[in-house]
């Protein structure tokens, strides 16, 4: 089994690749980096791009933190141990163009010492996912996105796509709005080795997912970046971003974990949009593109 | 002891008075009313003003709901009973002018049947508060606001202001930012009758607080509405609104109660701002008005 240091190093390399490719795709914006240290142990490299040609605000964050879990997190994770190590990459991109989707990607690894004492294998798992939040759902793009994810999953395990797609539908759900955050994608957590899945294979899957981010998003950006759009469509984009904010502040487990483990606030909340609008009781016009999009923010749509 | 029907009727009347006065103060905007019914029992009158001269978005909501408490709320309230009745007024106003403060007022009453069976007194309490969130803290306005609240409190009980001011400092606190939502005000919960405080007096206090809203906010609006302001100041206003959003979605007990008791979403989330902006790692310039404001978003400032 590969060490936690190797995993962190592998993730850092993916962060470098993604930032370079996004800068090249944008053509104007540059990432600013902030290296930070966590009081309880570890730290990270927060990289933020703002006011680009395409990327109004985006973050590509790497962190590798360790220390003591607070009681609330131990309860949530149903674990007894205090010590933890966690490393991962988290990405959220808010484009300025309403036809270019918001995208989120996360790959992560978590480890704790065995509760059976020294010499025993540590408790560990991988988690992650990619999901897409189009302001306007474009069926061809949604099919492309899900087909790409399926092709990545299928290289590693036959039922990964099916299981993790359902998991994303359930996870990226705004209960109080009764709508999904977007068109989903894949989400998995606590993935561990088994008879037919080695730790190495899971790590390779995690990296393959991380490396699928650039080809996927490059395609979706290039398909849509030159389209004309109206002020009304931009207004709708800002309203959709308000739903994104609601999800992240009310439900997102990563955000909660960050806030409760005393994480670096600006790194955790980089996911929030540059501008969001809340309009009281907004109703999309019957037959409009906006209404069409709302009708597709449901669980259980098969895009492949 | 006055009945729950009387309390609800008293609150409805205050809602009417406040809406009429705010329309007159604004001079342009009008409240739109939505009467709604809750699936589990009861309902309300949501009244929203948008795009006024002064009020960019505001809600003055009345509700009187009853039914069965979900398990999560029973735990949070530390009660055993299932049946509940709750009535109240909730107000949040987002002005379009950065020098006019955001204001929030809530008065509420909660009742459950006694766990000792029929014939016993019900379990009941009052709660409420007013707090002010200036985008720019103006010391004179802050003193006026707190002095007015103290004068209302002092009519009913000697230590109300002192206790409820501390409570507001603790309640309206954005833990992950280590800053208060604004300059506080008063907040109280589970206020019950005692030897030297009758139920009637508590109800009268609740109504007096509700009726203090208009004189207080009229004064604060009129002091500031004609001031010139810059684009930068408006930008700062939108950033402060993002903190308001964070508080309401992450910490506010009323919002949580609403979401978990299957309340009407658009009524609960009317508190969210028309436009909010999240800027990565914004730092106020040393010596600026913005930095001055941040330095005053602390607990324990004595404004009286």
Please provide a written account of the structure.
The structure is a homodimer of 304-residue chains. Helices cover 40% and strands 26% of the residues of chain A. By secondary structure, chain A is of the alpha+beta class. Chain A has one domain (4-295): Coproporphyrinogen III oxidase, aerobic (oxygen-dependent coproporphyrinogen oxidase), CATH 3.40.1500. Strand 10 (275-277) of chain A pairs antiparallel with strand 10 (275-277) of chain B, so a sheet runs across the interface.
Helix and strand element order of chain A = HEEEHEEEHHEEEHHHHEH
Strand order of the largest sheet of chain A: 1-2-3-4-5-6-9
Cα distance spanning the termini of chain A: 34 Å
General form of chain A: globular
Radius of gyration of chain A: 19 Å
Helix share, percent of chain A: 40-55%
Per DSSP E runs of 2 or more residues, the count of β-strands of chain A stands at: 10
